[in-house]
Amino acid sequence: MTVTTAAEPLLFTPLKIANGKIELSHRVVLAPMTRNRNHPLNAENTPEKPNRIWYPDDVVMEYYDQRATPGGLLITEGISPSLQGGGMPGTSGLFTPEHVAGWKKVVQAVHAKGAFIYAQLWHQGRTTISPMTGLPAVSPSGLPWDNNKDAYLYKPVGETKMVLYHDHTPVMMTMKDIKSTIRDYCTAAEVAVEECGSDGVEVHGGNGYLPEQFLSSNINVRTDTYGGSPEKRCNFVLELMDGLAKAVGEENTALRLSPFGLYNQTRGVERLATWSHLCKELKKNHPKISYVSFIEPRYEQVHSTAEKDAFLASWGLAAADLSLFRTIFGKTPFFSAGGWNDKNWQGEIESGRYNALLFGRWLISNPDLVRRLRQGLPLRMYERDRFYGPFPDKERGYTDYAAWGEEKDEGITGIGEAVGLLS
């Protein structure tokens, strides 16, 4: 008698990225997530001498080590290529010796587990403020925040109340600023790959940060080569990816996009024209790019699904999905992020829509998520109020989640929707 067994779900089968240089053993990818757990460079933090630099310590190293699996892929939290592009408390950059030493230890720990790690490069642009960096915030156009009630997430040292974005208008980037910023990205990429040993770099091109600010017609009102039409609004990102390809090799680069996102006031029009042009040019210019990563159209940082559906309908995009971009990129590995859990991943890779799925909040509370998904084990609920530090007890809700079988109280307490910077 012949015994047949069910085929292994494609989520747990190998996938080649980096133009075939890297073979993943499964397709459960750690999403890039801001966790604000890095260590301050200066213990003193006063209005006269504010700390502006944070770097990964052994706790951060442990966090990534816990989530590394043989042949798995981790994407780091956003790493600022310069002080001007960062400033958020607890987040790291890659422009000081302390940064380099810290991330090198993280990479070594991940590699010791047989896993791979990409460094996500994250320039905040107009979403940072000068009190946090000591430098003017920059953007494609020097437009003020159009809501006079939106406040920066953290109080600058010495302030007794939250600081409003509207009171800190960014400066418009000059041509010199644009070239200098691209150089910052390229230098950070070289450091990540050549000094820290990262397997590649991913540009955060979504969620309203600097690259997407250039792509968004309501934020970018330039009339030069970097704005004024869908094609010109793509030039910053295309030049950035060109620079990174020259710096570290196009097969070691990747890009994250959110074509239908609203976060950080990205309410621009001509979405399909802009992002389809960007993707066609990127595919043409860099066919060996490692992978592309897209955020699902109905996943949103600060809006409910119903609210997001209403926005999409108002743009004539009620049926929006990622199929256009999937078609453009063809055989380039295509990742999806936004709301994946133990109830909805089945069949998604088999459908051909995606090659890998990124998991965020559920990989926070379940460092052994790959095993749990494969074996159908219950998931442990995350602590929402511990997503974002800094905390004096930063291990809680960060490195204190045990693997299955190591705790008495196993299981899930309910699937919730997280709001904020997590994927």
Question: Could you walk me through the main structural features you see in this protein, from its secondary elements to its overall organization?
Answer:
It is a single chain. Helices cover 28% and strands 13% of the residues. With 423 residues, it is α/β, with parallel strands linked by helices. β11 (253-257), α8 and β12 (291-295) form a beta-alpha-beta unit. It is globular, with a radius of gyration of 21 Å. The termini are far apart.
- Give the N-terminus to C-terminus distance in angstroms: 47 Å
Contiguous uncertain segments of 5+ residues: 1-5, 410-421
Structural Rg: 21 Å
Strand runs, count: 14
Class from helix and strand fractions: alpha/beta
User: Judging from the principal axes of the Cα atoms, what is the shape?
Assistant: globular
Produce a short descriptive summary:
With 423 residues, this protein is an alpha/beta fold. It has helices spanning 58-66, 97-112, 130-133, 175-195, 210-215, 230-233, 235-248, 271-285, 305-314, 323-329, 361-365, 369-375, and strands spanning 15-17, 22-24, 28-30, 39-40, 54-55, 73-79, 116-121, 138-139, 171-172, 200-204, 253-257, 291-295, 334-337, 356-359.
